[in-house]
């Protein structure tokens, strides 16, 4: 199919469209359908006549579509949030984020030591267990129409805190793994650059809104969307050049635009691109997984999955209660941020590039695949899970008793 690149990409899009229709009919998140579809037509898929389902020639284009999808998902997530809310909820976010990252990282360290991994592999495992998938969480929140929920503000704050942790973690581990020995000055410099870059965007969002309102006062939708896309891709690419994840750059730009009077217009124009390229991200992720290479790491990964589900739920419950949210809203936090995806893969790839144990690749593939499937399921069924746990722990009863005592 060397001369049929457009046809090959078209075939991929037809399959993605079929998966989308099926997910819609079943009223279920499209994410696991796309990942499993990608795995099914990946490296070992058959060639049927002129249709080559391995997508060898178009793999780079599909991967690039997926990369764009992450940018749009994170950009839209930033638009849904605002720096004003972040500042007002700063204390809750720092406390909630610290609880979430610390608990997951420590559980990852413990799991690595118990399963006999060397120190560097253990650190990588702890890192990939600690970072939620911003892309999947963003998609699920939008799909389930939960962006206005009371707990969503804290969920987004924890995700942002998690992204900051990721930037710091990658900076430190890059120094440890890729340079042989970490340069203290180099590591501190990388960390300071990342933090300063994020703070700069917060300042622009708070102080630069009037100027941005004038610059974006463009009547033509065609020109307006070109300007927005130019800013998105330039900022994302520039972020990567200074060793800040491009997805974080997209998120920060979304936060900036969320403070302008053009926010609703941007959202309306971006949504179709978010949905299309977001679907391609999950499909391309599935394509990268060879199902026949996963066997040796299945049980190891499933143990990490159980640990992550329990750790996330407990961390979410504690974070939510610390922020004054109800037990129901707090349980929603832990059941929403359990998904793992793009950032876990980035962490694992750092270890693989540095020549750590090969088992990291299949381990991460199974771990991410399972959580990318059950994560949206847990979020979708969060109400039923809360009602079940409430029968055990009697949260509502304790709340009524407390209110009665306070009233007396």
Tell me what you see in this structure.
With 408 residues, this protein is mostly helical. The protein has 19 helices and 2 strands. A two-stranded antiparallel sheet has the order 1-2. The chain is globular, with a radius of gyration of 22 Å. The model has no long low-confidence stretch (mean pLDDT 82).
How would you concisely characterize the structure shown here?
This protein has 408 residues and is an all-alpha fold.
Strand and helix map with partners:
Elements: H1 5-26, H2 31-40, E1 47-48, E2 51-52, H3 59-80, H4 83-88, H5 90-114, H6 119-130, H7 134-143, H8 152-178, H9 184-207, H10 209-215, H11 221-241, H12 246-257, H13 263-287, H14 298-322, H15 327-336, H16 342-353, H17 360-380, H18 382-393, H19 395-407
Antiparallel strand pairs: 1-2
Helix pairs in contact: 2-13, 2-17, 3-7, 3-12, 3-13, 5-6, 5-8, 5-14, 6-8, 6-16, 8-9, 8-16, 9-12, 11-12, 14-15, 14-17, 16-17
Descriptive terms for the model:
single chain; 408 residues; mainly alpha; two-stranded antiparallel ribbon; 19 helices; 2 strands; 77% helix; globular
């Amino acid at each position: 199919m060397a001369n049929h690149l457009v046809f090959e990409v078209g075939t991929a899009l037809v399959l993605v469209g079929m998966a989308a229709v099926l997910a819609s009919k079943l009223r279920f998140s499209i994410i696991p359908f796309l990942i499993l579809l990608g795995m099914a037509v990946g490296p070992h898929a058959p060639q049927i006549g002129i249709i080559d389902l391995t997508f060898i020639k178009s793999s780079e284009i599909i991967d690039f579509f997926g990369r764009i999808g992450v940018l749009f998902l994170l950009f839209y997530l930033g638009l849904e949030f605002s720096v004003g809310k972040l500042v007002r909820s700063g204390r809750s976010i720092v406390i909630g984020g610290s609880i979430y990252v610390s608990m997951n990282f420590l559980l990852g360290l413990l799991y690595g030591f118990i399963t006999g991994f060397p120190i560097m592999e253990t650190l990588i495992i702890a890192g990939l267990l600690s970072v939620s998938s911003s892309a999947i969480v963003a998609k699920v929140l939008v799909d389930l129409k939960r962006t206005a929920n009371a707990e969503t503000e804290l969920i987004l704050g924890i995700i942002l805190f998690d992204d900051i942790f990721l930037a710091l973690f990658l900076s430190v581990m890059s120094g440890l793994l890729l340079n042989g020995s970490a340069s203290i000055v180099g590591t501190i410099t990388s960390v300071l650059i990342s933090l300063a870059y994020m703070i700069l965007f917060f300042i622009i969002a708070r102080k630069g809104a009037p100027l941005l309102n004038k610059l974006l006062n463009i009547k033509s939708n065609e020109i307006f969307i070109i300007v927005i896309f130019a800013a998105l891709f330039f900022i994302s690419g520039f972020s990567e050049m200074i060793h800040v994840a491009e997805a974080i750059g997209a998120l920060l730009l979304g936060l900036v635009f969320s403070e302008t009077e053009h926010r609703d217009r941007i959202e309306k124009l971006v949504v179709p691109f978010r949905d299309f390229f977001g679907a391609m991200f999950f499909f391309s992720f599935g394509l990268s997984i060879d199902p026949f290479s996963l066997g040796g790491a299945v049980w190891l990964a499933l143990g990490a999955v159980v640990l992550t589900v329990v750790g996330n739920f407990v961390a979410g419950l504690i974070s939510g209660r610390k922020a004054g949210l109800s037990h129901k809203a707090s349980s929603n936090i832990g059941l929403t941020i359990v998904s793992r995806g793009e950032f876990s893969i980035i962490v694992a790839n750092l270890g693989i590039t540095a020549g750590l144990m090969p088992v990291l690749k299949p381990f991460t593939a199974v771990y991410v695949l399972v959580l990318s499937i059950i994560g949206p399921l847990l979020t979708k069924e969060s109400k039923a899970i809360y009602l079940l746990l409430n029968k055990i722990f009697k949260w509502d009863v304790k709340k009524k008793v407390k209110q009665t005592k306070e009233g007396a």
